[in-house]
Fold these 3 entries.
Entry 1:
Amino acid sequence: MQRWRGLEDVPRDWGRSVVTIGSYDGVHRGHQLIIGRAVERARELGLKSVVVTFDPHPSEVVRPGSHPPLLAAHHRRAELMEGLGVDALLILPFTSEFSKLSPGDFIRTVLVDALHAKVVVEGPNFRFGHKAAGDVEFLTAMGLKYDYDVDVVDLYVTGAAGAGLPFSSTLARRLVAEGDVEGAMEILGRPHRVEGVVVRGAQRGRDLGYPTANVETLPHTAIPADGVYAGWLHVDGEAMPAAISVGTNPTFDGTSRTVEAYAIDRVGLDLYGLHVAVDFLAYLRGMEKFDTIDALLERMADDVKRARELVDAHDAA
């Protein structure tokens, strides 16, 4: 998959293409439907498929300080899109100047002049241009002028977690924030992932016999609610079953919120300075303050046992 940053990176001889545009944070199941349709239409027409997205999130430019928690880093989104068969990813730097493009200028600059769109695939609620004034109806009308078609994909509704709501990043963020990582998995189509570099912490886990990777998460990461979870710790392409703690370590009167992952049954891991990923499979319990170290150790042993069982059951399914 080709990756471009800015319109100037698009090859001058780029032919006609099938394009879809959006923030696509999380590349959730609704996004997968839209992107999958774009890839399908491109193959039918013998053209290339292009996903257009933005950095930073448009809300941070339009309303500074309102950047939503991110469900996936840009490099992770790119990996997921490549897995869906996308031919090219265009990341547009979203600046104050860019935000002032009218819907018509946006279409002409991005879709027509740069990408030579033959088909544009979007969800029914797609908005674009200055003050989000452009919609699917306007996009379709302009297609008559610029010789492109618009394919609108209705997003399927979710199961129990979504209570009949359409797939959306907003819903996935809410579920993650509530600690409902299983519900978020229904939306995302995979476990929610948190990434970052392993840094040195208080090393209490090592002293207690449960050495953890203390993950310094990427900016604006959507972090699950405080508690203990089952999941995986990904290191250099290897997925290791893990018990994961999110919170401030109240037993030790901690104040900093951390994400720590214990790789179950792994000994002698030296992860400091490595970029790792943590996938959240299931919520085990809330964060607790224990009166004694023995009580904490007893609960940790139970957490690890349950985490191992849940991961093994998921892997066997």
Entry 2:
Amino acid sequence: MRETVSMTGMVLSSMPIGEYDKRLVILTREEGKITAFARGARRPKSSLLAASNPFVTGTFSLIPGRDSYSLVQAQVRDYFTELSAMLPGVYYGFYFLEFASYYGREGIDGTDTLNLLYLALKALVHEQPDARLVRRIYELRLMVINGEYAPDPAKMTQRTLNICRYIMEAPLTKLFQFTVDETVLAELEKVLDRHRTRVLDRRIKSLEILERFV
């Protein structure tokens, strides 16, 4: 039997497999985005029942396989249960998970993306700043992490350009600690919508759902 490895991460998605199992996609600090199977996780008394859902964050004990992992235990840090009861906060949350999954790759360092995702979800739960701004901060910084954004000064006012530069360069712990007025936010939304449409090569399904409610 292969040795168990421990990874810190967050469950990005969870899909039923067979009668009792689940297929999880987990963003990990150590190995980027991985696939893991939680055997028996849908049984009522399973120790993996609560830990095999989207948003769950913690330390996962896994057995490596050829193309995936088997989840054997989880020490949960946060379930984000408050978010599931928030509208439209939960729609923002699922979009954040899917956007992280879009950029996720196996075998890379996922530290920055994982930390950004965690802080963005915490900002949604605390409702500070406004969820619209949280979304734009998250989008911009995630694209920066993946080398896909450079602001074009000719396409925005100086105030909005300054905000973009701050989001691109500030420590992650400082990202969600400011607000902007409606004029700057509206311009930031337009700039990022154009850029996201240009660089992404497929639709983000959860974004379509989010935009129906906001």
Entry 3:
Amino acid sequence: MSAPRLMPYGDRAVLVDLDGTDEVLAWADALRADPPEGLGEVVPGGSTVLVVAAEGASTATLRAALEARRPGRAAATAEPDGGLVEIPVRYDGPDLADVAELTGLSPDEVVAAHTGQTWRVAFGGFAPGFGYLLGEDHRLRVPRRGRSRTAVPAGAVALADDYTGVYPRESPGGWQLIGHTDLTMWDLRRDPPAVLTPGARVRFVEER
């Protein structure tokens, strides 16, 4: 891992610019496991970690603590957090056959690969409750669709690039749809509202 690039972000945060999602996960895990003085919130992204200072804390002190951190050590010592979430899925998505063709797997092998690994929620985005999940089996890496759909139903389970995700509500989308879950991914009556929070480990379970 290379040294992080630290940039001021407003008057209460520091943006840690990294080389990829693996580094983001390592830094986010390390900051949660061993928070520096003045840490308020950790917000991971695709290649950045936004580190927000606690109310009244010195941003300069927080930045100095971040500059003293060693990325390699962060990756080696941090433990994943967030618990294990199981999501039941019916693998009947309209793009399952296309994903099989793109990956060189059969549809059953696509399902076995999707359910046979533990995924990590790297970061959230796109819509409230949508998590970008990274897996262990790179055979499922597929491109986005050439043309986005105008309406993807809530609960659609999808693949795109290195990620899998679950659409929390009906919305346009260009990911490859391989299945569907009835689990409500975003509910303001829950605490937290999102089923998938950054750092959580996820297993998809086939529902017949």
